[in-house]
Amino acid sequence: MEALIDLLKTDPNAANTFGALASAAVAFFALLLSIISVGISVWAIHSERKHNTLSVRPLAEITVADYEDCLRVKLRNHGIGPMLITAVSVCDNKSCKPSLVEWMPQLPRDHPWTNFASNTAGRALPPGGEIILLELVEHEGESGFASCRKLIREALATLTVHVEYTDIYNTLMPEHSKPLSWFGRHTA
Q1: How confident is the model at residue 8 (pLDDT cuts 50, 70, 90)?
Q2: Which long-range contacts (C-beta less than 8 Å, at least 24 apart) are formed by 94-98?
Q3: Do residues 134 and 73 lie in contact, with contact meaning Cβ atoms separated by under 8 Å?
Q4: Can you give the pLDDT at residue 18?
Q5: Is residue 114 a contact partner of residue 137, using CB atoms and an 8 Å limit?
Q6: Over 80: is that where the pLDDT of 14 sits?
Q7: 135 has which bridge partners?
Q8: 184 φ, ψ (degrees, to nearest 5)
Q9: Residue 148 above 90 pLDDT?
Q10: Distances (CA, A) of 8 to 1, 15, 16, 20, 24
Q11: CA distances in angstroms from 106 to 109, 113, 114, 151, listed in the order given
């Protein structure tokens, strides 16, 4: 080591050469470190974008209620982001219509529907939100509800509900379908 120091003290060309090599090595490592930093930044941005997309993902569920005093079909958003409904179709084995109420028979004695949604395409559903697609509830002291319930159960049992939706980034989510055959267990 002392010989190297003596050479650098006595020969100016060797000192300049050694200095130039040291500068080149420092520049090379600085460039390498910069490339690694850019790679880490690109990876971090990609990961953050993926996380942001997944953190606002909606999750559709069609729920059914079949009680003695209530029949209901709801569309719920169990995800953590808004659900933008692009289409709802209700189909039997032959054709499709845009809502459940269009498949329903005329109720006896002009019994009114408790609630229904006729067209849900284009609506937004917040996380934890729901849309009642069809609901019929028996009111206290009401007569003839059993015949209404039977008609509706028979009509619902043959149908399947299909929901197409996107997230807020307009990413098409997998279609969610639910057959309403659950209502047919009382019709036999």
Answers
A1: low
A2: 96/162
A3: yes
A4: 73
A5: yes
A6: no
A7: 72, 115
A8: -80, -5
A9: no
A10: 11, 5, 9, 13, 18
A11: 9, 10, 14, 9
By three-state DSSP, how is residue 156 classified? Answer: helix
17 phi and psi, to 5 degrees? -65, -45
Residue 64 tokens, joined: 């059914």
Half-sphere exposure of 170 (CA within 13 A, CB side): 0
Q: Which token pair is 96?
A: 């499709």
Number of C-beta neighbours around residue 139 at 10 A: 10
What is residue 172's DSSP assignment? Answer: B
Written as one string, the DSSP assignment of 35-96 is: HHHHHHHHHHHHHHHHHHHHTT---EEEEEEE-SSEEEEEEEE-SSS-EEEEEEEEE-SS-E
Q: Which residue has the tokens 């569920």?
A: 61
The Cα–Cα gap between 15 and 33 comes to: 27
The answer to whether the beta carbons of residues 118 and 101 sit under 8 Å apart is yes
Instruction: Quote the tokens at residue 102.
Output: 């269009």
- The one-letter amino acid code at 122 reads G
CATH fold for domain 60-186? Immunoglobulin-like (2.60.40)
Which H or E run contains 166? strand 160-166
